[in-house]
């Protein structure tokens, strides 16, 4: 049976961001799969990762799978920094490019909640799940809107970035772009001119995200690449080149600033999360190692931890192998089956 | 008792490099500890790592330790790319800066051998040891001058860089420098102007070299730093800033090209190594993982493998903790005690 997929843009005249700045003509992209039922009790929210437009998550949705659009209304919301949601690259002057105000993960979550309420009348989510920057949004959701979130799943993620991950965001994403000779303080006029910087982001992501076993066993061969250089160019450069540099820098800074405690005591915040929670981590994930996920889980009153065996590390979320897909599907099914 | 330390420069009128290029007025720095005995049977050669001048290895030399200058004549040779040895930054036009010919690890070893013979009359080495780029030189030594090398130790190293390590050399060392706005094809005239690129090398080395446990347990505190940012600035930026960018790029390319088989079959080369060999690897060394060191060892006819437990990974070679120092001293003592 064909399932229903719809795209929409949620627009508001202006939004006051957490920083106090006003963002006029504010837009949030949203893609949905499935149908919202009559009592609006089958909604799942699945926010995206850094560089990941909503449609990048569709590989996890399908009939007979845990995220089944025949059963659930699955909402893939956008985030600031990824067009067509409001971003440096698509905002009119004076807030264009380098002058786009610094949004936070909390701003993403605030506009997502308003979109759910005003577009769909949704006030309850069976599950909020996400990985990486999507997990940052998931923790923010469970903290900021506890009455709405029945279950949450942080997969390959954390409530806020570790010191290592902040260094990653700065040195792998931001600095290759902001040190590109064409950066010009973010006021470049030819977005194609920042190719050098964006390719370098790709090289560094290729260096730091796959676990060493991925290279030792030459698992890039399974993905159809003929050499490491080919994998670096056609997977990693290809992933980053289409993005605008200011958009990427905004996303990287947003992630660095993520903190569901709002500058308070994170342990207290985690202890206060009411949702039934799943924390799942992938073997060899350099960015969110299983040991750290286990500690996050232990800090929450109602959480379970699952270790997903993988040779892909953080990249397991790209469904690179049957094991990755089955391991992640399994934890999604498990949290959805939990009584709350 | 005070031990003898001496510095010298070995100079030759010109040298034909492996590439065929001629390097005029060729210089190799050398520092020695201890005294060469009458029959010249107590020499140990200890080549350096990327960015490491000979004196950086002195923390491993001391009375009562395995590298005991009361017993051995310990030679710390320079390498091309690290002044005062011939380098882009100290060579006269036309071979200055970006026009310095591409040297190889084999060229370092060839001039080191000539220095040992012509300066000291040494034709036998009890041990050649090194880590990282020093290990690349060690394998080259055992392959190129088998009659001279009685024992070798590769610690946190390999015969040639893996695909991941080549990507590291390119994206962590070369590209931050060659994409610096002041790079100018390597023809910059103010060497201080490349600060941005050199600091970025520091950030990326900080990101990729310490194992995750180092950050999770905040082991930088043991080294006297107050925060990750402080560690990144005062340890990592401080390490790279004094270097010349062309010198670093030369070293990085030299390492990428390292191959003791000279483009042949590495397995055959390793199977032909006659020296008694120690291959030692540190827990969590992302650059030279223990599994890879074990495979290198298995390919040699006369080698033993030792795993050194460490929380410092590749940085164990900086002697960051008692465990690192003792673990590395132990494998040096063990290979020196082997009958050959």
3D architecture notes:
Two copies of one chain form a homodimer. With 340 residues, the first copy, chain A, is of the alpha/beta class. Helix content of chain A is 35%, strand content 16%. Chain A contains ten helices and eight strands. The first copy, chain A, has helices spanning 105-120, 133-144, 163-178, 195-208, 212-216, 228-240, 245-256, 266-271, 290-298, 322-337; strands at 5-16, 22-33, 43-45, 73-77, 127-131, 151-155, 276-282, 303-308. In chain A, a hairpin with a 5-residue loop joins strand 1 (5-16) and strand 2 (22-33). In chain A, helix 1 (105-120) crosses helix 2 (133-144), helix 3 packs antiparallel against helix 7 (245-256) and helix 4 crosses helix 6 (228-240). Chain A starts with a strand and ends with a helix. The relative contact order of chain A is 0.14. Chains A and B meet through helix 3, helix 4 and helix 5 of A and helix 3, helix 4 and helix 5 of B.
List keywords for this structure.
homodimer, 340 residues, alpha/beta, 8-stranded mixed beta sheet, 10 helices, 8 strands, 35% helix, 16% strand, globular
Across the major sheet of chain A, the strand order is 1-2-4-3-5-6-7-8
Which chain pair has the greatest contact? A-B, 31 and 31 residues
Oligomer: homodimer
| Outline of chain A | globular
Relative strand content of chain A: 15-25%
The average pLDDT value of chain A, as a whole number, equals: 96
Main pleated sheet of chain A: 8 strands, mixed
User: Helical segment tally of chain A?
Assistant: 10
Radius of gyration of chain A: 19 Å
Query: How many strands in all of chain A?
Result: 8
Reading the helices and strands of chain A in chain order gives: EEEEHEHEHHHHHHEHEH
Structural class of chain A: alpha/beta
Task: Estimate percent helicity of chain A.
Answer: 25-40%
Q: Cα distance, first to last residue of chain A?
A: 30 Å
Low-confidence stretches of chain A: none
């Amino acid at each position: 049976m064909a399932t229903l997929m719809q795209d929409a843009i949620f627009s508001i005249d202006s939004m006051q961001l957490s920083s106090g700045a006003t963002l006029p003509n504010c837009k949030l992209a949203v893609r949905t799969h499935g149908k919202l039922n009559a009592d609006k009790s089958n909604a799942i929210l699945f926010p995206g990762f850094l560089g990941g437009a909503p449609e990048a998550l569709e590989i996890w949705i399908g009939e007979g799978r845990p995220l089944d659009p025949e059963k659930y209304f699955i909402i893939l919301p956008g985030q600031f920094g990824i067009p067509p949601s409001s971003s440096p690259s698509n905002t009119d002057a004076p807030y264009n490019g380098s002058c786009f105000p610094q949004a936070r993960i909390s701003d993403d979550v605030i506009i997502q909640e308003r979109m759910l309420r005003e577009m769909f009348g949704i006030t309850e989510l069976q599950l909020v799940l996400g990985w990486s920057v999507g997990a940052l949004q998931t923790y923010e959701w469970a903290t900021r809107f506890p009455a709405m979130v029945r279950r949450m799943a942080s997969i390959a993620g954390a409530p806020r970035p570790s010191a290592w991950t902040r260094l990653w965001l700065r040195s792998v994403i931001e600095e290759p772009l902001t040190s590109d000779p064409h950066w010009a303080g973010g006021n470049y006029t030819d977005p194609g001119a920042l190719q050098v910087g964006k390719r370098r982001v790709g090289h560094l992501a290729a260096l730091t995200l796959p676990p060493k076993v991925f290279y030792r066993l030459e698992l890039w061969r399974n993905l159809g690449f003929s050499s490491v250089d080919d994998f670096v160019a056609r997977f990693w450069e290809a992933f980053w080149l289409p993005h605008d540099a200011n958009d990427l820098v905004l996303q990287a800074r947003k992630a660095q600033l993520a903190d569901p405690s709002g500058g308070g005591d994170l342990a207290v915040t985690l202890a206060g999360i009411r949702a039934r929670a799943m924390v799942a981590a992938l073997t060899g994930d350099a960015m969110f190692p299983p040991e750290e996920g286990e500690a996050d889980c232990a800090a929450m009153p109602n959480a379970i931890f699952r270790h997903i065996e993988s040779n892909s590390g953080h990249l397991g979320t790209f469904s690179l192998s049957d094991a990755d897909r089955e391991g992640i599907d399994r934890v999604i099914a498990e949290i959805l089956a939990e009584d709350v």
